[in-house]
Amino acid sequence: MESKKELNALYKYDAKPQFGEILSLGLQHVVAAIVGIVTPGLMIAEVTNLNEANTTLILQTSLVFAGITTLIQLFPIFGRFGARLPVMMGASFAYVPILLAIGAEFGIGAIFGAQLIGGLTVIFVGLTIKKIRFIFPPIVTGTVILSIGFSLFPVAVNYMAGGAGNEGYGSWKSWLVAIITFVIVFYLNNFGRGFLKLSSMLVGMIIGYIVSLFLGMVDFVPIANAGIVQPILPLHFGLEFKAVPIATLVVMYLVDSVQTIGQFTATTFGAMDRQPTDKEISGAIMGSGLANFLGSLFGSVPCATFGQNVGLVVSTKAINKYIFTFASGVLLIAGFLPKIAAILTTIPQSVIGGATISVFATIAMTGLRTVANEGLTPKNTTVVGTSLAFGIGIALSEGSLAGFPAWVTTIFGNSEVILTAIIAVILNLILNKPKPEKILQE
């Protein structure tokens, strides 16, 4: 009886589960997010020609601010900056194409200068979201969630194949490890019971990691090269304020606010059976803006909600704040101790892919549920189908925007989510004519 009571604590935000339960589920969130947190920093470091020390530093700041941003969302500052909802935050892949373009042309200082302005813009959006939230009803956010899930499918498959561009990509070893990991996660998630079911992803990744060790797929060189302790310093990378990078990144931040609504809606709807309130959405956006403003000063790439972790929350229904507090603590420690960060980065991408593909599927299905609950009327199906057709179709059709300026492709041609969100908002306003008083929640 006591065990059941303790287990139920995992499904309550403020309850106090046993540490063993917090440890297992918290580590699942860490391993689900770690590759996604460090990869954008690695890509930006490469395109801006950072040396090894600065590359390590940008990875550290990415880890530290992933932890800080998550804590802000868990424990809102002044009761306004943060949603008080169970989410993991970290470096966002949605921003990567734009950041690479800015970094290659203008340098890393321009990235963080534009990010600072973008963060302030997002805070303003969060302050006014109650007045404009009617623009983003469930039919729109559900469509955005669907596009998020669809956009993550190729990410998972590339991970399963060993990571695009990596040696051995597409090899039988990568697929063997990925499939073994997937089968274990699938079995425990669907046929496991109790805590094994909740820990399915962690168990699968541990076994997948062990198999990859025997196959010689784990590289321990990063651990040997990493330092023991290294602080992060403000303005190390500098700030440069240039019009084109600022305008481009501000547009991305505005569109990403819709994605934030979608991700937080997926969390509350999928794991808590309700829509998020206006206060929660406002706090989520403002908390993200504050964290990104601070991150620009220390050299952390923009943070957003992590789709794979949203899927993990939805699939386990474990929403307890201590799970995410523990995960944030691990990320903070890893950020200040490069050796730990290096250990986490040794997890082969095929293990990550095998463990997360079903999680990404859960995200897409959450979007589908959100849309279905609004009713598949002719107008709604037009909004959903047309938005996805444009968003996904253009993103998958390389060069389809070649006749436009490069920034058009950067913003609209490299992300399924951005164009889908914009078209869904416009079509819903035209067809359904939503009114503020019918959508807003207190």
Automatic annotation (TrEMBL):
<dbReference type="GO" id="GO:0042907">
    <property type="term" value="F:xanthine transmembrane transporter activity"/>
</dbReference>
<feature type="transmembrane region" description="Helical">
    <location>
        <begin position="108"/>
        <end position="127"/>
    </location>
</feature>
<feature type="transmembrane region" description="Helical">
    <location>
        <begin position="235"/>
        <end position="255"/>
    </location>
</feature>
<keyword id="KW-1133">Transmembrane helix</keyword>
<dbReference type="GO" id="GO:0005886">
    <property type="term" value="C:plasma membrane"/>
</dbReference>
<feature type="transmembrane region" description="Helical">
    <location>
        <begin position="411"/>
        <end position="431"/>
    </location>
</feature>
<protein>
    <submittedName>
        <fullName>Putative xanthine/uracil permease</fullName>
    </submittedName>
</protein>
<dbReference type="InterPro" id="IPR006042">
    <property type="entry name" value="Xan_ur_permease"/>
</dbReference>
<keyword id="KW-0812">Transmembrane</keyword>
<feature type="transmembrane region" description="Helical">
    <location>
        <begin position="57"/>
        <end position="78"/>
    </location>
</feature>
<feature type="transmembrane region" description="Helical">
    <location>
        <begin position="383"/>
        <end position="405"/>
    </location>
</feature>
<feature type="transmembrane region" description="Helical">
    <location>
        <begin position="350"/>
        <end position="371"/>
    </location>
</feature>
<keyword id="KW-0472">Membrane</keyword>
<feature type="transmembrane region" description="Helical">
    <location>
        <begin position="139"/>
        <end position="160"/>
    </location>
</feature>
<feature type="transmembrane region" description="Helical">
    <location>
        <begin position="85"/>
        <end position="102"/>
    </location>
</feature>
<feature type="transmembrane region" description="Helical">
    <location>
        <begin position="21"/>
        <end position="45"/>
    </location>
</feature>
<feature type="transmembrane region" description="Helical">
    <location>
        <begin position="201"/>
        <end position="223"/>
    </location>
</feature>
<feature type="transmembrane region" description="Helical">
    <location>
        <begin position="322"/>
        <end position="344"/>
    </location>
</feature>
<comment type="similarity">
    <text>Belongs to the nucleobase:cation symporter-2 (NCS2) (TC 2.A.40) family.</text>
</comment>
<keyword id="KW-0813">Transport</keyword>
<feature type="transmembrane region" description="Helical">
    <location>
        <begin position="172"/>
        <end position="189"/>
    </location>
</feature>
<dbReference type="InterPro" id="IPR006043">
    <property type="entry name" value="NCS2"/>
</dbReference>
<dbReference type="Pfam" id="PF00860">
    <property type="entry name" value="Xan_ur_permease"/>
</dbReference>
